[in-house]
């Protein structure tokens, strides 16, 4: 019996596994109601970018008495320095899945934090989801169990496990991947993300919306099929209901939206999630890259990133070491 099979690890892999904790972008976000526990019901079309955190996991079982090694690197690692390793969403995801399927914790988790923290693109949820995708693949955990654990970690985590263009309902846990033709259409697009590097707390934005007296929205009316211009036109008629309260809390968001909309080739601009990151869609990744260079030069204090919309979840691959 192979070492992998002996530990119940799926596949022949012997080394650490890695994937991308992909940035989540809400193309629209309607707040459609509120649950008794205070969580808001949402309707959203989400896509994921090839821009994200690098997440590496060594799924081999931890020897008795040892602790999982947690490595945190990257441009935004310092923003999580005061979060205890055990409280990091990547570590919490491993503990939650291991507990649920009664397995020892993995030996090592490495997180290269490239996405700004508390920025409306689900970075922490993406990290948790990446760990769930890596470990559940190695351990052979069925998808419904993974999705259930994801829902307990945060409202955004289940959609980040899917990591493909999807319509979202419930408080975020009802994830319906788009049919292939629509996912493929969106998947070819370029995008630019921009953040003024000021964090915005998600609960604060929901609270500010409630205080403004805003009423519940109906779900957006989006075509099931059709071409990209049709879909973008329908999305333009939809809104991000969290943008008005977010702009009140952080007025610079309006500048970010305006700067993105003015970029040559930008065909759709909006704030994502609870902000402050805003995005612009482009016909191609090359057009997005050229526009991002321009924006980064004009706004050197902002975080600006260019990439493409993913049609399917980022691949999982073996990696020789966490630092490679
Ligand atoms: C707003 C969204 C839209 O995709 O994105 P982000 O801005 O976080 O990226 C999400 O719903 C955020 O999901 P997530 O960040 O996982 O939220 P959680 O950690 O579960 O909840 C943080 C807090 O946000 C509020 N919350 C979150 C989700 C939701 N459907 N209703 C809420 O009211 C609650 O006050 C909750 O205590
Ligand atoms: N791996 C992680 N990455 C980002 N934030 C994390 C992580 N682990 C815990 N957190 C906490 O989760 C909160 C939400 O962060 P994040 O997911 O980046 O927000 P958003 O969904 O708005 O982009 C932060 O305040 C942070 O302290």
Automatic annotation (TrEMBL):
Class of the enzyme per the UniProt entry, highest EC level: transferase
UniProt keyword terms in alphabetical order: ATP-binding, Isoprene biosynthesis, Kinase, Nucleotide-binding, Transferase
Keyword Nucleotide-binding among UniProt keywords: yes
Location of the active site: 24, 156
Pathway given in the UniProt record: Isoprenoid biosynthesis; isopentenyl diphosphate biosynthesis via DXP pathway; isopentenyl diphosphate from 1-deoxy-D-xylulose 5-phosphate: step 3/6
Domain GHMP kinase N-terminal span(s) in chain numbering: 88-161
Family: Belongs to the GHMP kinase family. IspE subfamily.
Protein's name according to its UniProt entry: 4-diphosphocytidyl-2-C-methyl-D-erythritol kinase
Organism for this UniProt entry: Tistrella arctica
Protein's gene: ispE
